[in-house]
Amino acid sequence: MSDDLRNSSAFDALLFLSFGGPEKVEDVRPFLENVTRGRGVPPERFEDVVQHYLHFGGVSPINRLNLAMIDAVRAELAGRGRDLPIYFGNRNWHPMAADTTRRIYDDGHRRVLVFPTSAWGGYSGCRQYHEDITGALGAAIPGDDPTFLMRKLPQFCREPKFIEASVNALRSALAEFDEQPRVVFTAHSIPESADRNAGPAADGGHLYSLQVKAASAAVAQQLGIDEFDVVWQSRSGPPQVPWLEPDICDHLRDLHDRGFTNVAVMPIGFISDHLEVIWDLDSEARDVAAELGMTYVRVPTIGTDPVFISLIADLVERYVDGDGDVTALGCGDNGGICRPDCCVPVRRPARTQ
Ligand SMILES: CC1=C(CCC(=O)O)c2cc3nc(cc4[nH]c(cc5[nH]c(cc1n2)c(C)c5CCC(=O)O)c(CCC(=O)O)c4C)C(CCC(=O)O)=C3C
Ligand SMILES: [Fe+2]
């Protein structure tokens, strides 16, 4: 494709690219096999997570929540005079990204913006979505049609509207307390080695944990909160491999030992109340807080908050006419990564599963 075509033509479709989740009991194991293939997740952890999904009848809310966001983005774009078709595809479950990509192609679109449902850098949050795009192209597009372009939108964790939507969610939750609670931000834990590799190698790594801490600090600052914590949840992997800590449940015990009795837990790491949120925070962590006699409020994720939806529409508008900064972190064409040696996957021991 000529540089001219690549740089200056408008995009004609949007792919909302997410993680995916099961819709019924029979989906749970094949879904989890897709998620964990080659990832060194021990069988005991796999079985635990099967149970988390079965607890909810084998249905993750994630697809429904993504579809609600898509409807809201469609309405927002229509309100701005843009009727861009929006498609939905996932890394791990149906509708799979490859099937959706084929449908986009068959519908005649050739320039596709991709909105990933992760705000963050790092392998799982960013580079793996590039890999999903490469995989979808390979599986779905005849003969690698060179006129077909998929451009992933950049990481959005530093966007003022991401912070603003998070501030609004936390502010409303804080109104439920008579006295100021300890504010605890959480995000998905990742292996320490993955965090070391997160971001452009030249920047020294740790992009993911630095971004989570920076976003949390920005939210706290706007609410005048001087003391808060950033902790991690949903740890997976073999027990001997170090992951980001402290874990939310251990941290609640620690806060209790230090005399705190009220806690507001904000899952800044996720944009919807999917299973990692409703199991790990609304069940496990809530139970720990109850045992300790603590007042525990889980702050809603930003989901369909109008400020967040308008951010997604802004990102689309920034790129849709063929402008937009393709060198922004996380932005890439046809699955190409944004920087050399960015978020390099960590090599796993040969026999892990
Ligand atoms: C950084 C990050 C995000 C945030 C960025 C983003 O949003 O993309 C995220 C999101 C999510 N993670 C999710 C679910 C799972 N994550 C798993 C496993 C893992 N996640 C990891 C990291 C992340 N994960 C990692 C390093 C692993 C270990 C295996 C590996 O190295 O890949 C497993 C396997 C079982 C287990 O927990 O061991 C499941 C089921 C769901 C869907 C929930 C639903 O169904 O509603 C969502 C949105
Ligand atoms: Fe995950």
From TrEMBL:
Keywords: Cytoplasm, Heme biosynthesis, Iron, Lyase, Metal-binding, Porphyrin biosynthesis. GO terms for cellular component: cytoplasm. It comes from the Bacteria. One of its GO terms (molecular function) is metal ion binding. PROSITE patterns: FERROCHELATASE (PS00534). This is Coproporphyrin III ferrochelatase. Pathway: Porphyrin-containing compound metabolism; protoheme biosynthesis. Its EC number is 4.99.1.9. CDD domains: Ferrochelatase_C, Ferrochelatase_N. Belongs to the ferrochelatase family. The keyword Lyase applies. The lineage of its organism: Bacteria, Bacillati, Actinomycetota, Actinomycetes, Mycobacteriales. It catalyses: Fe-coproporphyrin III + 2 H(+) = coproporphyrin III + Fe(2+). It comes from Gordonia phthalatica. Fe-coproporphyrin III binds at S60, Y129. Its main location: cytoplasm.
